[in-house]
Amino acid sequence: MKNLFDYGLLLLRVGIGGLMLTHGIPKISKLAESPIKFPDPIGLGSTTSLILTLIGEVVAPILIIIGLKTKFASIPAAITMFVAFFIVHASDPIGKKEKALLYLICFLVIFLTGAGKYSLDGLLNKKKY
Predict the structure, then answer these.
(1) Residue 75 confidence (pLDDT)
(2) pLDDT for the residue numbered 17
(3) How far apart are the C-alpha atoms of 28 and 25, rounded to whole Å?
(4) How far apart (Å, rounded) are the C-alpha atoms in residues 80 and 57?
(5) Which of 3, 28, 91, 119 is the most exposed place for a label (fewest CB within 10 A)?
(6) How far is residue 91's CA from residue 98's CA, in Å, rounded to a whole number?
(7) Measured between alpha carbons, how far is residue 61 from residues 1, 40, 92, 98, 126 in Å?
(8) Domain range summary for the chain, segments of one domain joined by +
């Protein structure tokens, strides 16, 4: 049963991280815009908001997929989805914002459980799971 848990964490990490990349990677090209045109939902400026979003939707998911510093990486990913759900899509119907909530829940589960045995964290820490 323990192996099934670790396989489940691997599937969750790779699946949710890979899907998040489909949202983040297209935003990378926005860095080349001058001036940068990106929503500023929490008042930090368009450039800062874009950079933070790219950390949450590209950098963090890559770390989550490979299982490196996974608990730490899940924090910016979860914060990004928190902002998407509760601020960016606050007035939208649940059908439009539920994807952000599902991602948020998954990143919170990854934060609580860690990467599991089949990850770089597991390999580097040689931690018994």
Answers:
(1) 98
(2) 98
(3) 5
(4) 8
(5) 91
(6) 12
(7) 27, 22, 25, 19, 22
(8) 8-120
What length is written for the chain?
A: 129
99, with CB counted inside 10 A (0-12, 13-18, 19+), is middle
Between CA 59 and CA 66 the distance in angstroms is 11
Question: Which contacts (CB < 8 Å, 24+ apart) does range 79-85 have?
Answer: 80/52, 80/53, 80/55, 80/56, 81/56, 81/107, 83/41, 83/42
DSSP 8-state assignment for residue 89: T
Enumerate residue ranges in the chain where pLDDT < 70: 1-2, 127-129
Other Cβ atoms closer than 10 A to 77: 29
